[in-house]
Specification:
five-stranded mixed β-sheet; 26 helices; mainly alpha
Length: about 625
């Protein structure tokens, strides 16, 4: 592996410009596929995304950037950073889907790029640490084989794994706060590690470990700024999780006191308070105890200690979330975690800081996974911030696989390297093939369990007739066969490439067209009826939805909408309503809901029918 390191370093020094340009093109390509391609081509997806989009739009309308509102009511679910960024995007490019989702996309791109940079720095530092003990003739012998291809280097692999996994792609294209939190928090953790290694570089250069400056080094400073932004994105969790991760990491290594002095936490806390605290003060002054009870009590404490909005799940829920959400790379996580040999504390305490990235990623992964496993309320998006850590762990595993295979080739014979990979790796390769075949089967037969959404009752048939299931399943079958052949030919390092090509092909030819089909069946009818409602609404006429709550109707109509799930509640509301300025009400709902209202077809005027919905003008007298 040492021969690989030096020869790769020499090769890249001789060709410094080309790798830089190729790396920039690589980052643009994976960011485009994962986050930007077709970003605004489908409408907002009910039920959560329009809540954020409309709250941000309301800020631009009212000019109140302190208290978020949706449909006339305060919305204290999340702090304002995501709303502010959406509002800026509205001003820049208009009120549209691109503007709603661009904060999430940019957050995904930022963590991808910073992950690339961190892996580059870590790899370069390993090269510098080990260069003195590498034999020149061995390096020259390896360099004649051409070195490791740039696209198989750790930064290229890591950035691809950070961006291209189902969980990150899904939330990086959704206009909610989850990816923004992940971008801020995970960028903060990477900034911490870069600052952590920078202190080691200072020491090796002859500087004191703790400088005379009153402020932390630039990367630690960036860490504090990003933590403040994370707090403005989703509240206390933005600082609690990083504190658990860094605290556990430093206590394990026994350098907590030294790290405390380096990071200058008093200065850091002041920076965090200066950025994050003013809004919290202003919103409490504006809303008082109502905000405190809602945000800190209900949306933070109660989510951790109790079930909120019926989002309960068994303790093993996140094992399945990571397995599917980080597929197909999740198959390699157990081996990647075992590769860290985290039980060898003495070994890790002797390692230079630049070589501790895998251990740091392990604490990052375990702290987030454990924290949300303990929490009672469970949602798949909660563990989104551990995906970059998973990517780093698997990347470093594959870097060893590729480097050691190349070192074997350079020696002209097969022999076991000093740091042999876990014996379970062969089993993992086989599991990789089986896992992809399971995904292929699930894709081919997925139409059998897609008929539960009453908003798109014809979607399973439309999906089956589109041929997308055959395309998607076929891609995974071909990928599984390719990996099996590579394994048979003992070309293990290309297994990663086969997984990557299969995933990108599935995104382009299977997943994206399926998203468009979902939009046509589920969301387009509501957007069309929103336009009809705007055109047909009479002065003073109230707009009501019955049977369900679809917040996208508020965003696309830009009208206040009254929601009632049960017909009886809607009837009681209409009878008691003081709004008598119009003799009729616009009502949107499923046809069967009109029947449950007790309305006969001749008692209301049907204005339009789209998809599973119908829009009608109902006289107030029809409800009595």
């Amino acid at each position: 592996m040492k021969e690989v390191i030096k020869s790769s370093s020499e090769y890249q020094r001789k060709h410094s410009i080309a790798p830089l340009l190729l790396s920039l093109l690589w980052l643009c390509a994976i960011a485009g596929v994962a986050f930007l391609w077709n970003l605004g081509n489908i409408g907002l997806v009910d039920e959560t995304e329009p809540l954020f989009a409309e709250a941000a739009r309301q800020m631009t309308v009212t000019g109140d950037f302190i208290t978020p509102y949706f449909n006339g009511d305060t919305r204290f679910d999340k702090p304002p950073l995501v709303y502010w960024l959406m509002a800026l995007a509205y001003r820049a490019i208009g009120v549209n889907e691109w503007a709603v989702r661009i904060p999430s996309a940019l957050a995904g791109i930022s963590i991808t790029c910073l992950g690339f940079y961190t892996l580059s720095q870590s790899w370069s530092q390993v090269i510098r640490n080990e260069a003195e003990v590498i034999k020149n003739e061995a390096a020259e012998k390896f360099s004649s084989s051409g070195g490791i291809p740039l696209f198989l280097s750790a930064p290229w692999i890591g950035s691809a794994l950070i961006a291209l996994n189902p969980q990150t792609i899904a939330w990086g294209r959704t206009g909610v706060s989850d990816m923004l939190l992940t971008g801020c928090m995970c960028s903060a953790l990477l900034a911490f590690f870069l600052g952590y290694t920078l202190e080691e570089k200072k020491q090796s250069a002859g500087f004191s470990t703790v400088s005379a400056s009153r402020f932390p080094n630039p990367w630690y400073l960036s860490f504090y700024v990003l933590i403040a932004l994370a707090i403005l994105t989703k509240g206390p969790v933005g600082i609690v999780l990083p504190a658990l991760i860094i605290g556990g990491f430093s206590l394990y290594l026994g350098n907590f006191r030294q790290l405390w002095r380096e990071m200058r936490p008093v200065s850091g806390i002041l920076i965090i308070l200066a950025i994050a605290l003013p809004w919290y003060i202003l919103v409490i002054l504006a809303n008082g105890e109502t905000y405190i009870d809602s945000f800190f009590g209900y949306h933070n404490f109660q989510r951790f200690t109790g079930v909120v909005n019926r989002h309960s799940a068994p303790w093993y829920f996140y094992f399945f979330v990571v397995l599917v959400g980080f597929a197909p790379w999740s198959i390699y996580l157990p081996v990647a975690i075992a590769r860290t040999r985290f039980w060898q504390r003495t070994y890790w305490r002797r390692q230079p800081r630049s070589a501790q990235l895998s251990l740091f990623a392990l604490f990052w992964f375990l702290c987030i996974f454990g924290f949300f496993t303990i929490a009672v309320t469970k949602l798949p998006s909660y563990v989104l911030p551990l995906m970059p850590a998973s990517a780093i762990l698997v990347t470093l595993l594959w870097s060893d696989i590729i480097a050691e295979k190349a070192a074997e080739t350079s020696r002209g014979k097969l022999e076991t390297p000093p740091n042999s990979l876990p014996r379970g790796l062969l089993i993992t390769y086989v599991v990789n093939v089986v896992f992809l075949l399971i995904i292929a089967g699930a894709t081919l037969y997925s139409y059998n369990w897609l008929g539960d959404d009453p908003a798109m009752p014809n979607f399973p048939q439309a999906l089956q007739e589109s041929g997308l299931l055959i395309v998607g399943g076929g891609i995974w079958i071909v990928t599984a066969v390719a990996i099996a052949l590579l394994l048979w030919q003992r070309q293990q390092r290309w297994i990663l490439v086969a997984n990557f090509i299969g995933l990108v092909a599935f995104i382009i030819f299977g997943l994206t067209p399926a998203y468009n089909l979902v939009d046509l069946n589920r969301q387009l009818p509501l957007r069309q009826l929103a336009r009809v409602a705007v055109e047909q609404k009479l002065p003073g006429e109230e707009f009501m939805m019955i049977g369900f709550a679809k917040p996208s109707l508020v965003f696309y109509s830009q009208l206040p909408v009254t929601y009632y799930r049960l017909p009886k509640g809607a009837i009681d509301y209409i009878e008691e309503s003081k709004n008598q300025t119009s003799p009729s009400i616009l009502v949107l709902g499923y046809p069967d809901k009109f029947v449950k209202f007790g309305l006969q077809p001749n008692e209301y005027q049907l204005l339009d029918t789209r998809g599973a919905y119908q829009l009608a003008r109902v006289p107030r007298t029809a409800f009595r």
